[in-house]
Specification:
CATH class: Alpha Beta
Shape: globular
Oligomer: single chain
Mean pLDDT: 82
Distance between the termini: 47 Å
CATH architecture: 3-Layer(aba) Sandwich
Number of helices: 14
Order of helices and strands: HEHEHEHEEHEHHHEEHHHEHEEEEHH
Radius of gyration: 22 Å
CATH topology: Alkaline Phosphatase, subunit A
Length: about 425
């Protein structure tokens, strides 16, 4: 395959296939020397596959909830009560202290106004921030970083916008360069490492050859600084990083990603926006109730995020984390012990400045006549309202029309959760 400039710079982003953990010594790198003290940072988590919001944040006072889900509903005596009406799935026990301490907020009946039940289309619309519009070229989080309110900042680094994964997601596609990080041991740049007997990967060699004579600066830094940063990523040993006292991340892909984001944030590398995703939410069959497929996924999800929060320590005050999924699932269970593609869902917002300990949004009800198309929880809060508030309060991106064109967002209609 011909390797060319477009291969590396598609959508204004460089995916460094195979980078991972960044230990604290990177603070001393030439990249970090120009970085200012950390400002507010936004972390976005996409639950791919359409999480079942009704079993994640359970409306346990709705009698129709139990009538429609005889085999998978969470019994009232096992729900982790939030406010006398809603409660968390018991596998989200790691979230309960964060909620009680006022750091974690819930937005229920949130979602997209688009009615698509296609995973691909719905994810694309949510990541572009333009439901129903397929022609949007960039992602909402990249547009947030393009905001005029951010352009005056000095010292943008290679790590300003990053994703944990093998490729830059749709959310971060756009004019602002972003990088994707996954496994440091699989990427080498320049001369072979004499201690590992490994040659530079073909992609890395092509990248260095292409950029070695270039005056371009895709990382808001010089080419020399860029290569230095990549070399340090290559040589970093993930085992060097020690989470905070008493912090134990799940030994899972998602747990690993959250640990690596914490490393990057704590290293003061100039991260402003970080993204990762977690799959396994498409529970058409054998979803389970208190135990089972969904319960296992929720345990990993909440334990990883809670570990991340504790690991940040005092720096958690500067971080806002928001979760999203492309749509919810049907109010009624199906014939195979699962749920099918639905509409509204639950979002979580976690942060030092978040007004947590509350379930936000207008509850539409689960009576048969209140359901969307007679089958789903109805959307009463546009997901763009939640993201718009989080990104404007965290990153200072105040141009809401640029951020979410066509949404008609107004600050006086925010939920006031940040």
């Amino acid at each position: 395959m011909q390797t060319n400039r477009r291969f590396f710079l598609r959508n204004g982003a460089l995916a460094i296939a195979g980078t991972a953990a960044i230990p604290s010594f990177l603070v001393r790198s030439v990249m970090a020397e120009t970085a200012a003290a950390p400002g507010r940072r936004l972390v976005v988590i996409f639950q791919r596959g359409a999480a079942d919001g009704l079993n994640v944040v359970v409306p346990y006072r709705e009698q129709n909830y139990y009538a429609m889900r005889p085999g998978i509903a969470i019994p009232q005596n096992q729900v982790l009560d939030l406010d006398g009406f809603f409660g968390l799935h018991p596998s989200l026990s790691a979230f309960k202290p964060l909620y009680d301490q006022g750091h974690l907020a819930v937005v229920h009946a949130a979602g997209s106004p688009d009615m698509s039940r296609s995973h691909f289309d719905a994810q694309d619309y949510m990541e572009s921030g333009t439901p129903g519009v397929k022609s949007t070229e960039d992602g909402w989080l990249n547009r947030a970083l393009q905001s005029e309110d951010l352009r005056h900042r000095q010292g943008h680094t290679a790590f300003r916008a990053l994703a944990l994964g093998s490729q830059v997601p749709r959310t971060l596609a756009g004019k602002i360069p972003a990088i994707a990080l996954s496994n440091v041991n699989n990427f080498t740049v320049g001369a072979p490492n004499p201690n590992r007997n490994l040659a530079a990967s073909p992609a890395a060699s092509a990248f260095q050859a292409m950029y070695g004579d270039s005056g371009d600066s895709i990382f808001h830094a010089t080419g020399e600084e860029t290569f230095e940063a990549v070399k340090m990523l290559r040589d970093a040993n993930p085992a060097q990083y020690k989470p905070g006292p008493g912090v134990d991340y799940p030994n899972t892909e998602f747990g690993n990603n959250m640990k690596q984001i914490a490393q990057l944030l704590k290293a003061n590398l100039g991260v402003e926006a970080a993204f990762t995703d977690v799959s396994g939410w498409d529970t058409h069959q054998n979803q389970g109730g208190v135990t089972g497929q969904l319960a296992d996924r929720l345990r990993d999800f909440s334990s990883s995020i809670a570990a991340f929060w504790r690991d940040l320590g005092d720096s958690a005050e500067t971080v806002t984390l928001v979760t999203m999924s492309e749509f919810g699932r049907t109010a009624r269970q199906n014939g195979t012990g699962g749920t099918d593609h639905g509409h509204a869902n639950a979002m979580f917002v976690l942060g030092g400045q978040v007004k947590g300990g509350k379930v936000y949004g207008r509850w539409p009800g689960l009576a048969n006549e209140q359901l969307n198309e007679g089958r789903d929880l109805a959307v009463t809060t546009d997901f763009r309202q939640v993201l718009g508030e989080a990104v404007s309060k965290t990153l200072g991106a105040s141009n809401l029309d640029m951020l979410f064109p066509g949404a008609g967002l107004r600050t006086d209609r925010f939920l006031r959760l940040v």
